[in-house]
Design brief:
The complex is a heterodimer of chains A (about 550) and B (about 60). Chain A has about 550 residues and is mostly helical. Chain A has helices spanning about 5-10, 15-45, 55-85, 100-120, 140-170, 180-210, 220-250, 260-270, 290-300, 305-325, 340-365, 365-370, 375-405, 415-440, 455-490, 510-515, 520-545. Chain B has one domain (about 5-55). The chains are: A mainly alpha (about 550), B mainly alpha (about 60). At the A-B interface, α5, α6, α7 and α8 of A face α1 and α2 of B.
């Protein structure tokens, strides 16, 4: 295989394959913009800056969850899964089984239309689509569930196409081992297929019931917990694969630990997916005490693969930079290409992952789960992961690949470079205020939290901060989308080709392996200390509150 | 065979072992989990088999004659 970067190889795609990727990227940006607008409106209604009928408010909230969590994240992931698999081919980049991929895209689009129609025409079911909320609006709920079924079928077909693409690479090379990215793409596509099956397992019985073809599902919540676990893991796995690929493209640095070791780390993701799912069941009354205890223990492993990939990437970067003469504990950081908007986005995504990770560990502890899982602590925490980490990473990859895909220069790269920082500022405001309010019992999924003026004073005090954070976050994301749409439409200024930042840090692997690289292990140490501190703080705060834990459904 | 089929095969073995635990050991009985992870185990097993077959098949060479 020629030694072209991913972005260079995207330029060699045929017109048809390029059209497919452009369509996936465009659908991704459209659903992100819509989902962010719904999210902003939800935040403003919740904090009483906007008035709305309760039903409309809950529809907007449902639209936010469904559009962002199901459609934006999956249109974008599929675009990048297909792009990474296509660029593994020898010679010209190509997508295997492209009719399956096109069918997958069409099914996803139909799914989005059905889910949206179901949300606005029927009862607002929120994104988990609980059958308990369907009421009289059965056919509208059927439309909503059919949307998820179509989405799952589309994802499955796209994953089949991605796997066919990398299998063709292996066939063409006489069965030789894939590159690390080729292997990671296969593992990622495999987990997409499993998640598709989990989606069908959850929503197919519900769809059948609403159309009168079966009984009301009795185990919807179990199916949802299993699916939800996959939906936590899958985007995070995609995120670290994108980090690995983009860092290699941006800096020329691959893993200094070798290909086989890196593949082993990506395998860990798949190994840990099923056993760590137990913590989603903590609020199930019939879960045995043994499984409850085991779930607590196993939940500690959930971040192991992500931390391992972080260690591989950061240690490799640091070792290569030190070989190039970087001095001091953090001196190597200044050698990274921060002028690239994609690098700035990845940097902030890593920071947000650490913040989200610390507080997510508070949330998944068995004794705290029942007290916190219905509070605003949950959305305040997971926005660090869904928006601050995953969305920022997906946008980084779009920013890096769209000029090659659309053959147009980036529009306003300086502004694009700034947006990850403004987004993080908004996120920290939203997250910190939301977690404080959540620790004091502010409920989630409730639009009117004033309780006729009887709500605790802290909730009222935190609401403007939550709102302002949401506005900053939303405007940063909408501006990011606008600049990428402008890029696709050709608003960017063509400049003389700059020196590619690629290979700026690459040295020989042998020289790099002899360097000491302490930053990544130190970061992990800080993370562990942060987790302990946050847990101690959460326990202390909750013990000080005059409350009794009586939670309903889990997160 | 390369590490690619070995790693994916390992995943399928672990998932299927876990499914057996959820399906057949009363203490861990979780039929819902067994169905989802079982279908996943089947996906990764199929994938490992396909990869292994491709790895064992000799590379086709074009015969100019």
């Amino acid at each position: 295989m020629t030694n072209l970067s991913i972005s260079q190889r995207l330029r060699t795609l045929s017109t048809g394959d390029r059209m497919l990727l452009k369509a996936l990227v465009s659908c991704g940006l459209l659903t992100l913009a819509l989902g962010v607008i719904f999210g902003l409106v939800t935040a403003l209604i919740r904090t009483s800056y906007l008035g709305a009928e309760a039903e409309t408010g809950y529809r907007v909230m449902t639209g936010h969850g469904v559009t962002i969590f199901f459609y934006w994240l999956y249109f974008a992931q599929m675009a990048l899964l297909m792009a990474l698999s296509a660029t593994q081919t020898q010679g010209r980049a190509r997508i295997g089984l492209s009719p399956a991929a096109w069918s997958g895209l069409v099914l996803m689009l139909l799914g989005f239309a059905a889910s949206t129609a179901g949300t606005w025409m029927g009862s607002p079911l929120l994104y988990d689509g609980s059958p308990d909320l369907v009421g009289e609006n059965t056919w509208q709920a059927g439309l909503f569930y059919t949307g998820y079924v179509l989405l799952a079928s589309g994802l499955f077909l796209l994953a089949v196409s991605a796997i066919a693409t990398v299998i063709a690479v292996k066939t063409g090379s006489g069965g030789r081992a894939w590159s690390t990215i080729g292997f990671a793409v296969t593992a990622w596509a495999g987990l997409v297929m499993v998640s598709s099956l989990a989606t069908l397992n959850t929503f197919l019985p519900a769809a059948a019931w609403t159309f009168g073809w079966g009984h009301e599902p009795t185990n919807h919540s179990t199916g949802w917990h299993l699916l939800f676990h996959n939906l936590h893991y899958l985007p995070l796995m995609g995120t670290v694969i994108i980090w690995y690929a983009l860092i290699q493209d941006l800096t020329g640095v691959g893993s200094i630990f070798g290909q086989r070791f890196s593949k082993g780390i990506f395998t860990l993701y798949l190994v840990f997916v099923p056993p760590t799912s137990l913590y989603h069941m903590f609020l199930e009354p019939d879960l045995s005490p043994i499984l409850r205890g085991l779930g607590s223990l196993l939940s500690l492993f959930i971040s192991v693969p992500t931390i391992a990939v972080f260690l591989v990437i950061v240690s490799s970067l640091e070792a290569q930079a030190r070989t190039r003469g970087a001095r001091g504990l953090f001196g190597w950081l200044w050698m990274l290409p921060w002028r690239e908007p994609a690098m700035a986005a990845i940097g902030m995504a890593a920071v947000n992952l650490a913040l989200g990770g610390i507080f997510a560990f508070v949330l998944i502890q068995e004794q705290l789960a029942s007290l916190l899982s219905d509070t605003f602590f949950v959305p305040a925490t997971f926005h660090f992961l869904t928006i601050g980490t995953v969305t920022l990473t997906l946008l980084a990859a779009f920013t890096w690949s769209m000029p090659a895909l659309f053959d147009r220069p980036l529009w306003a790269p300086r502004l694009l470079r700034l947006l990850p920082y403004t987004l993080t500022v908004g996120l920290v405001m939203f997250g910190a205020a939301g977690m404080s309010a959540g620790l004091n019992g502010m409920p989630r999924r409730v639009l009117d939290v004033s309780y006729d003026g009887t709500a605790p004073q802290l909730w009222t005090a935190m609401s403007p901060v939550i709102s302002l954070g949401a506005v900053i976050m939303a405007l940063s994301l909408l501006l990011h989308v606008a600049l990428l749409v402008g890029t696709a439409l050709g608003s960017g200024r063509r400049q003389a080709p700059a020196t590619p930042s690629s290979m700026i840090l690459a040295t020989t692997e042998g020289a790099a392996i002899r360097q000491t690289a302490w930053t990544a292990p130190l970061c992990v140490l800080v993370l562990v200390i942060g987790m302990y501190a946050a847990t101690i703080l959460a326990f202390a705060l909750l013990r000080a509150l005059p409350l009794a834990g009586a939670a309903g459904a889990a997160h | 065979m390369t590490e690619d089929s070995v790693f994916i095969g390992l995943v399928s073995v672990i998932w299927i072992a876990l499914v057996a635990l959820y399906a057949f050991v009363p203490m861990f009985a979780m039929p819902g989990s067994a169905i989802v992870w079982g279908s996943g185990g089947a996906v990764f097993l199929a994938l490992a088999v396909v990869i292994a077959i491709v790895e064992r098949r000799p590379k086709k060479t074009h015969d100019p004659g």
